Amino acid sequence: MNIPLDGVKTAGIVGVPPLAVIRQLYRARVEVVDLDAALVAADLECAVTLLPRVYCAILRTVVVNGLNLDLDLIIIDTGPGKCDAAAHTAAILADRIKTPIITTENRDREPFGNPVCESDLPLLRKMEMITAGVARPDTPRTSPPPCPPTAGFWGVPPRDFSILTPFPDSTHVYGWSRCMENKTPADNRLEARFNPEVPTVFFAQSFCAKTALARHLAARHPHGLYLDIDATATASARAKIEAFLELSGGNGR
Q1: Beta-carbon neighbour count of residue 156 at 10 Å?
Q2: CATH, domain 10-104, list 3.40.50.11890, 3.30.1070.10, 2.60.40.10, 3.30.70.360
Q3: What pTM, to 2 d.p., does this model score?
Q4: Mean pLDDT of the region 231-251
């Protein structure tokens, strides 16, 4: 699809818009802002006027960003790589804010690979690179060194990245985060893939539809832990991960 970009200097994106859209923004030198990330200091309760609290923290964050940021355009992926709730959020925002809203459906299938997911970088850094990569039309020319996995993180990028700190650098990334780096967010087969040889935490944001798949796959995994959190990673959640990795040998020691 060809998006009119006359006068557009800053665009917010939700989910993973099609690569053609990202390329168009890149060529037009539009600054791209990831609205899935916590970008403003406003409390998530600000979203309650538009969304019920049973919506996941990511979409509530999108609403808070949309209400508070000065953007020329918002592009929201509402295809099979995101969720029905994103489509509802797009419709509500279009009715309540002045910023133009454009919806897309990402059905891209060209694989870009997963060097970051399988690298020896700290898991938090891996996730930062994966999410930042959504705004780029290509992949970096050089890849971080790969490593054999001792643990796995399956799921979506969390709203609170501090939940990633207990994991060893030798953690490989699976689930929708892996699809993000591959630039194929609607690839259900890739999303459902996991490594049964390493202890794996299966994560989803509370109230996200992916909690069903996370719990299902965790039950199938020989040594899986199902975990969901809402907006903020609690000390008990981090302690649960640390204990799981310690007892399963997933900390790489």
Answers
A1: 21
A2: 3.40.50.11890
A3: 0.94
A4: 92
